[in-house]
Amino acid sequence: MKIKRRAAAYGVCRTPDGRVLLTRGSDASAFPGVWSLPGGGIDHGEHPDDTVVREFAEETGIGVRVSGLRAVLADLASLPDGSIEHTDRIIYDIEVTGGDLRSEVSGTTDLVEWVPSAEVAARPLLPFTARILGVRFDDPAGIADDLPAGEVERPPGKVQRFGAYGLATDPAGRVLLTRIADGYPGAGLWHLPGGGTDFGETPERAVARELYEETSQQGRIVGLIGVSHRYDPAALGPEGVPLQWHVIRVTYRIRIDEPTTAAVTEAAGGSTAEAAWFTRSELGNLPLTELSREALEQTG
Is 1:84 a contact under the CB 8 Å cutoff? Predict the structure, then answer.
């Protein structure tokens, strides 16, 4: 069985009286006639913030700006070609900045409407849209534990990866970081615990798994910090072949209520050389990755 992965960005946009903007899938889409939040796939090298603005313009004709990050989800769906697709979905809150509402022509949507809140549940909705809008639904294609084996299809010469990371703190205010091992990009720098999500894995499960593998700690997610990306078209893969590496990252705030001595539990030869707790005063003297610096700045 073929398995696929994609990352996408969508927006919740409402009028003052509570109507929400929805688009209908066209015959060119995987699910014709089904309604969704406006949005779509993140292009290679594109920041998710830019994706949702672009997709709104294409599908609705209106200009928008991102006003907040609402949720990050993942789901599985069976496609008409018999494959199973894992989609990581970033959901934003959106505000209109201008433009005139119009439906997309010759695209994957064919109709756009401001739908009153009382009428949303009567529309056939994609499961993630129903979930975000609080509509009950049956989700037989949700994330499952029993998944088919196979290699994810990827465009030649391009790698787009979705990762989940955590800024983890303990009751004393210490911060948990990991040092990147030699032979990996950023070797020697101190990084947030985390890494790529597996096929069929939610970002919440992924960050919990990575946290334990890299630091031996168990924590709980207490909030979303933000979404970022890194595009490195010159990154080299095996045999020195350029990969056009694009990583999309969601960062969570994690609380570790019962901290222990940090230790790497993953197999030797991995990307993590060591893990350690640091006080606020010690952080200023550490060589940090871009992601670590951003998360610390965003959280004060």
Answer: yes
Query: What is d(CA 249, CA 267) in angstroms, rounded to the nearest whole number?
Result: 23
pTM of the model: 0.91
The CA-based angle 159-145-251, given to 5 degrees, is 50
CB 19 within 8 A of CB 133: no
As a whole number of angstroms, the distance between CA 34 and CA 125 comes to: 5
pLDDT computed for residue 153 by the predictor: 63
Q: Is 97 left (phi over 0), alpha (psi -120 to 50) or beta?
A: alpha
What are the residue ranges spanned by the domains of the chain? Answer: 3-133, 159-298
Q: Do residues 120 and 135 make contact, with C-beta atoms less than 8 angstroms apart?
A: yes
Tokens (6 digits) for 42: 């993140």
Please count the other Cβ atoms lying within 10 Å of the Cβ belonging to residue 36: 23
For residue 209, what pLDDT is reported?
Answer: 97
Closest CA to 145 of 190, 205, 189: 205
Query: What is the C-alpha separation between 41 and 104, in angstroms, rounded?
Result: 16
Return the minimum-mean-pLDDT range out of 8-12, 60-64, 156-160. Answer: 156-160
Tokens describing residue 88: 């990581």
Q: Which tops the pLDDT comparison, 67 or 239?
A: 67
Which is it for the CA torsion 70, 72, 77, 79, positive or negative? positive
Kindly write down the DSSP assignment for every residue of 90-121, as one continuous string. Answer: EEEEEEEEEE-----SSSSEEEEEEE-GGGGG
Q: Which residues pair with 41 in a beta bridge?
A: 8
SS3 content of the chain, % helix, strand, coil (to 5): 20, 40, 40
Q: How many residues does the chain have?
A: 300
Classify domain 3-133 by CATH architecture: Alpha-Beta Complex (3.90)
CATH superfamily of 159-298: Nucleoside Triphosphate Pyrophosphohydrolase (3.90.79.10)
Spatial separation of the C-alpha atoms in residues 283 and 297, rounded to whole Å: 12
